[in-house]
Amino acid sequence: MSTKTLRVLFVSAIMIMTSLAGCIESSEDSTDDSGQSDEYYGTIMTSTYHVQQLVSAVVGDTANVELMSTSNIPVHDYNPTAIDIERLKSSDAFFYHGLELEPWVTGTLSSEGIPPSYMTHTMPSGEITLDYTTMLVNDLCDQLNNGDKVSNTLLSYEDQADQLEIHLEKGVQTLTFPAADTSHDGHDHDDHGDEDGHDDHGDEDGHDDHGDEDGHDDHDDHDAHADHAHAEAEKVINNPVNCPANTVISVFHLGGEHPKV
User: Fold this and answer.
1) Domain edge (last residue) among 92, 119, 146
2) Please, which residues have CB within 8 angstroms of residue 235's CB and are 6 or more apart in sequence?
3) Contact at 8 Å (CB) between 42 and 61?
4) How does residue 6 score in pLDDT terms, banded at 50, 70 and 90?
5) Is the same domain home to 256 and 141?
6) Are strands 43-46 and 64-67 parallel, antiparallel or unpaired?
7) H/E segment holding residue 22
8) How far apart are CA 122 and CA 64, in angstroms?
């Protein structure tokens, strides 16, 4: 290879390296000393841990998301300190749950110097009060009128129970109990007809010595049955508005925040 050709290749390599250096420098200039990109939105203050997680999932590393409370205090019992209020005022935005979950928010938002505030949870369309029972009943009536309907027949024998699957999807699930199978009853009685009517057992069946024992057995069964607590409806709603005719809704409290219907 001639000297002239080598000189051309060397000059070309220098030009390429210079261009790459310029690109690297430009990339470094787009990031400040803290490693944050140009799209940085400052500090966002949040009222609860769940709101903090929600906002963090949306903004990613484009903002610093902080929690108002710096101690492990239940959200219903928390009241911001003077230091917390100053931290809030120095932030760029405030996100809170709403629906009266944080009793302190209303008074805090009326203070001067509070940044733009946003509620993450609002009432369903058309609702003006936080009445979970009414919401559930309205939704149930809508499902009874317009929802998908699935009919299920419950089986008589335990060894067939795994054949029935009820998926807890939104809609109307109808449960039907099958008619009792009495075809074997007559056979059992015929086979044992002589034994049941046998004269040798007449005295035993009517023996006075067993009268008290039988009575005690019945009493024991009754006591055992009484030990089983039966759930009773806290409220029964007959013919609720917008439901099909003759609808009866029973409301049970089975634990958790909201009633079960």
Assistant:
1) 119
2) 133, 250, 251
3) no
4) very low
5) yes
6) parallel
7) helix 3-29
8) 25
Which pair of structure tokens corresponds to residue 22? 């310029």
Residue 207 in any domain: the answer is no
Assign residue 89 the CATH number of its domain.
3.40.50.1980
Which span out of 90-94, 164-168, 215-219 was modeled with the highest average pLDDT? 90-94
β-pairing, 117-119 with 149-153? unpaired
Inter-residue contact 93 to 109 (CB < 8 Å): no
- By the 8 A CB rule, do 48 and 119 touch? no
> Is 228 or 244 the better-scoring residue by pLDDT?
244
Which residues, in sequence order, are bridge partners of residue 95? Answer: 46, 118
Residue 198 has pLDDT above 70, yes or no: no
Do 168 and 48 fall into the same domain? no
- For residue 119, the SS3 value is strand
Provide the domain limits for residue 162.
Answer: 124-177+229-261
Does 158 share its domain with 60?
no
- Domain count for the chain, please give it: 2
Residues 146-164: tens digit of each pLDDT: 888 877 777 655 666 666 6
Residue 82: per-residue pLDDT: 92
